[in-house]
């Protein structure tokens, strides 16, 4: 019984070469993934924190719910702040839209905030206007809002939807969706058209 001498054939050399290249690439890929994992575990990006500190309501008028469709006209200036809690990671806000919602229905047009970069532990403050003119409400929502007005207090949410990227040195990540919800308690202290924000609101943030 003879043993085949593979070393004299070119296809055996190619096979050995392919095997070496494969294991070299595999080792390189595993090394890169390990480095990425170590960087992630060391840096651990924390999502930004948002606070709604004030709201100035210039108008908040609901037409009679007894004659549908009920229309809501509102104009509100809100002051929002964002804090980047990371020591080594910057945040690029590429797109942020602010609007108000009532019982999960959007009641104002979205207002876009300018793209901005937030450095390590930095705080950014925005004071956009959000407004809606004759926005139709579903019948059950108009009844609920009218009841809240009569009770003197209404809960709305100032919402932020957008995209952000993490930045470490010269490296920048891909886009992540950010969704912010700021519950806002409004007081109808002097009847319709006289509305104020009752308290500062901490916001929930999903990234």
From TrEMBL:
Where in the numbering of this chain does the Late embryogenesis abundant protein LEA-2 subgroup domain appear? 79-182
Topology versus the membrane: Single-pass membrane protein
Pfam families per UniProt: LEA_2 (PF03168)
Q: Which GO terms describe its cellular component?
A: plasma membrane; plasmodesma
Where are its TM segments located? 21-43
The record's Gene Ontology biological-process terms are: defense response to other organism
Q: Where in the cell is it found?
A: Membrane
Q: Which UniProt keywords apply?
A: Membrane, Transmembrane, Transmembrane helix
This protein's name: Late embryogenesis abundant protein LEA-2 subgroup domain-containing protein
Source organism per entry reads Acorus calamus
């Amino acid at each position: 019984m003879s043993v085949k001498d593979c070393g004299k054939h070119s296809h055996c050399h190619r096979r050995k070469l392919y095997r070496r290249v494969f294991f070299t690439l595999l080792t390189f890929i595993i090394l890169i993934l390990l480095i990425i994992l170590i960087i992630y575990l060391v840096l651990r990006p924390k999502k930004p924190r948002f606070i709604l500190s004030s709201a100035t309501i210039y108008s908040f008028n609901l037409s009679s719910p007894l004659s549908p469709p009920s229309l809501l006209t509102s104009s509100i200036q809100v002051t929002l702040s964002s804090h980047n809690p990371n020591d080594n990671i910057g945040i690029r806000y590429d797109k942020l839209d602010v609007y108000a919602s009532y019982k999960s229905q959007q009641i104002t047009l979205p207002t876009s905030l300018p793209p901005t970069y937030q450095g390590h532990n930095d705080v950014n403050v925005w004071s956009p206007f959000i407004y809606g003119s004759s926005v139709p409400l579903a019948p059950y929502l108009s009844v609920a809002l009218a009841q809240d007005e009569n009770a003197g207090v209404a809960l709305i949410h100032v919402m932020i939807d957008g995209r952000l990227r993490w930045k470490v040195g010269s490296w920048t990540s891909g886009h992540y969706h950010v969704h912010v919800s700021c519950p806002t308690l409004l007081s109808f202290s002097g009847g319709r058209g006289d509305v104020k924000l009752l308290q500062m609101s901490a916001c929930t943030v999903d990234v």
